[in-house]
Amino acid sequence: MEKETIKVVIRTRPTAHFASKNIKIDSENNSITITKLKDEEMGVINNQQESWQFKYSKILHNSSQEDVFDYCGRPVISSIVEGYNGTIMCYGQTGAGKTFSMTGGPSNYKYRGIIPRTLSLMFQEVDSRFDQQVTVRVSYIEIYNELMFDLLSPIPTHEQSGNISIVEDISGNIKVKGLTMHACANEEEALSLLFEGDTNRTVSQHELNKNSSRSHCIFTLHVESKSRVESTEKVHVSKLHLVDLAGSERTKKTGSSGITLKEAAFINKSLSFLEQVVVAVCDKHRDHVPYRQSKLTNLLKDSIGGNCKTLMIANIWPEISNLEETISTCKFATRMMRVHNKAIVNVNQDPEVLLKKYEREIRDLKHELNQTYVPEPPEKLFDLARQFLTGSIDDIDDLPSIRYCRDLMHQMKLVYKKLEMNARVGSSRRGDRPGDGIEGIGEPPMDPAELERRKTLIEEEGVGEEEEGAAGFGVGKAPKESKPQHKLEMMDDGDHQPEDDEESKEENEGEGSEMGHPSRKSKRPKRKQLKSKQEAFKEYKEDEGKQLEEDIRTNRSDLREKKEEMSKLREVCNGAKKDIDNLKAKLEEKNEEKQKSLELDGEEDVIDEEEYNILRQLKEHKKLYRENFDKFKSLKGDAFFIQNNIDQLKEQLIFKFEVWYDENFDPPAGSKEAMKPIDPDFSEKA
Ligand SMILES: Nc1ncnc2c1ncn2[C@@H]1O[C@H](COP(=O)(O)OP(=O)(O)OP(=O)(O)O)[C@@H](O)[C@H]1O
Predict the structure, then answer these.
(1) On the chain, which terminus has fewer CB atoms closer than 10 Å, C or N?
(2) What residue numbers bound the domain in which 648 lies?
(3) Same domain, yes or no: 340 and 399
(4) What local confidence, expressed as pLDDT, does residue 603 receive?
C-alpha cells in the first residue's frame, strides 16, 4: 500500500494583465505569495495588508502543455498499467484554463491537453508490454445540475439519465452502474470517443466565458492487464479519472439569471460539498465523511482519501479582478494537499484462467498418478491384507500412494468377505452362530463366558455337534484333532479345510458324488454343476460381478466418446497442418519472387496485399492447429486415464471371480479347467 498525500500543482493562465503587485510566484521554491488590501471593496479606510503564502508540489507558471503533461500525466501512466488507480483533476475559477489543461485547445496540435496525451502514451505503454495483455476501455460522464449523463451512450443522454447510478461493490470500489464502457484497440479509437463525448458535452452560454463548461466532466480509462507469459489468473484492474471540474466562481460575479443561475447554484453546491469532504477527510477526529452528499464526491470517493494516486491541478487566472478567486483556489488547493490516500495494486482473479488452471492441475495430477503408480499384483496385496488382518504382521509400513492404499483396502475387503463366508460355512457345519469363528468380524463378539464354555466343549468333544441322519447342509461333528491351530486356519476353509473324520467320509461316500468330492458335497451348500470356467464367468458377471461389469461398460463408453472426439480433432489438426504447409510454400514462392526483383531493380519490396493475406491466414491456421492440438492432447490424457480404469476394473473382476469360482465349484486343484485363464472381454467379443 502506498500512503501519500494528494499532489497539488498550480497552473497559471498566461495573461497580459498579471497582478504583479499582489501575486508573487517563486517557481524555484514552488510557492506563491498573495497580498490584498483589507476591505478594499467596502471603501473602509484601512491600509492594512493581508498576505498569504502557499507552497505546493509544483508551480507551473506560463508552462507549455507538454511541461504540464510531463509533470502531471506521464508518471501516472505506468502505475495505472501496474494496477494503481489514478485521478488527475482540474479545479479553478471559470476561464482559468481547466478545459485547456485537460482537453487542450483545438487550434494547434501542440495545445492538446492531458487527456489526448495520456491516450497516446497509454497505448504506447500497452504496445511496449509484450509480456502483458492489456485491455483499455473508456467511459465519459458528465454531472450537470446533480444529474449524471453518459456522454458516450448511443441513446440521447436525457432519456437515460435515470438509468445510471453510483454503486459501491463489496470491496468498497465505486462503480457507475449502467455507464457504457467502450473497448479501444488503439489511440485513434480512444480519441474518437473523446471527441464524440466532447461534442455531446453540455455547454451553456455564460457572461464570463462563452464556452465555459457548467458541468463536471469525468473521462475515465479502465485498464485491465494480465501476463501473457505466466499462466496466472491474476488480473490487474485500475481506472484513471481525468476530471474537468466546473468553474468555482461566486454566483454573484457571474451575473447569471434563469437557468444559468440555477446551474451556478448547483455547481457551487457540489464544489462546497467537495470542500466539506476534503475537510472531513483531513480531520482525524471525524469518523464520517459526507461523500454521498453529491454525485461528484460520491463518484470521486476513491480519489479523495481512498485507494488512488491523485493529483490536482489548481488553475488560476492571475489578474487583479480575479484576486478573490485566486486566493480561494489557493486555499482549497492547500487543504487538498493534506488529504492522505492509500493506493494499492488492484488485483482481480480471472475466472476463465482460474478454471483452466484447475483443469490443468487435475489433468497433471491424473497424469502423475498414472505415471508413477505401477499396480501391484492383486494376489500379492491379498496376501499382505490377509497377513495384516490375521495379525501375522502388525503394521504395513510402506504405503507408497493413495492408489496403492485403495487397492490394498479393496483386497482387505475381499479377505474380509472370504473370512466371513468361510466362518459362516464353518459355523453352519458346526451349528454355531455365524461369526463365531471370526471374533470381531461380522457378527458382534460372543459373551466371554459362552465362548469359554464352547472352547472347553471343543477341546473335549471336537468341533460341531452330533447329527442324526444329517443330510444337505448338516456339517456333523469334527474330531478333536481337527481343531485348527491358527485362527486363520479356523476361518479360511478354502485352502485349509480340516480333514473330515473317517466316519463321516464313509458316510458321505455312501451318498455318492457327481463332483468326485463326496465329503465336501455333504458338508457345504450344494455346488453348481460346472459347465466351463468361461461360462461360469459369464454367469458371475450377470450376478455378483454385475456392478464391476457395469463400471467397465461405462468406462468403455466414455473411452469410445473420447476416441471419437480425438479422431475428429486429429482430422482438424491434419487439415490445418496441410493448410499451413501450403501457405508456407506460397510464402516461400513470394520470397523467391521478391529476392529476384531485389536482384533486378535493387529495390526491396514491401509486403503486398497477397503476402499480407497469406501471413494473416497462416496466423489463423496456426492458431487453429494449436487450439485443436491442445484439446487433442488433453483428450489423450483423459483416454489414457480411462483405459487405466478399465484395466484395473478388469483385474478386480477376474480376481473376484476366481475367489467366487473357487468357492462355488470344485475342479480338482491344478486341473485344466481350474488353471484356465479367463478372458474378461469374452462376452463383448461375442
Ligand atoms: N495556459 C493557457 N495557454 C493558452 N490559453 C489558455 C491557457 N489557459 C486557458 N487558456 C484559454 O483561456 C480560455 C478559457 O480556458 P478554459 O476554457 O480552459 O477555462 P476553464 O477553466 O475550463 O473554464 P470553465 O470553468 O468555464 O470550463 C480558452 O480560450 C483557453 O484557450
Answers:
(1) C
(2) 546-685
(3) no
(4) 65
Ligand 1 binding pocket mutation candidate from 100, 111, 251, 325 (most atoms within 8 A of CB): 100
E strand or H helix that includes residue 58: strand 58-60
In tens, the pLDDT along 453-469 reads 444 443 443 333 333 33
Pairwise CA distance, residues 336 & 7, whole Å: 8
The conformation of residue 400, written as its DSSP 8-state character, comes to -
Q: Is 96 annotated as a binding residue?
A: yes
pLDDT at 227: 84
Q: Is 157 annotated as a binding residue?
A: no
Q: Is the same domain home to 31 and 61?
A: yes
Q: How far is the CA of 489 from the centre of ligand 1 (A)?
A: 105
Cβ within 8 Å of residue 367, ≥6 positions away: 637, 640, 641
Note whether 551 and 594 are same-domain residues. yes
**pLDDT attached to residue 421:** 67
CA distance linking residue 489 with residue 419, whole number of Å:
10
Residue 113 known to bind ligand? no
CB atoms near residue 92 (< 10 Å): 30
**Who lines ligand 1 at CB under 6 A?**
13-14, 92, 94-100, 105, 209, 212-213, 246-247, 315
52 and 188 in a single domain? The answer is yes
CA 211 to ligand 1 center in whole angstroms? 9
Angle at 144 between CA 140 and CA 149, to 5 degrees: 40
In angstroms, rounded to a whole number, what is the distance separating the alpha carbons of residues 550 and 542?
Answer: 10
- What contacts 474, CB < 8 A, 6 or more positions away? 429, 467, 522, 523
pLDDT in tens, 141-191: 998 878 888 889 887 655 455 678 888 887 778 888 889 999 999 888 898
Q: Is residue 299 situated within a structural domain? A: yes
**In the numeric block, which cell numbers belong to residue 54?**
502557499
Do 103 and 172 belong to one domain?
Answer: yes
Residues 6+ apart with CB under 8 A from 418: 492, 494, 659, 663
For the chain, the 3-state helix, strand and coil shares in percent, each to the nearest 5, are 50, 15, 35
Helices (H), 512-608: 518-523, 533-542, 546-601
Q: Is pLDDT above 60 for 252? A: no
ipTM of the complex in this document = 0.98
Closest listed residue to residue 242, CA positions, set 214, 274, 219:
219
Q: Which residue has the higher pLDDT, 679 or 180?
A: 180
Name the residue at shortest CA distance from atom 13 of ligand 1: 95
d(CA 519, CA 515): 10
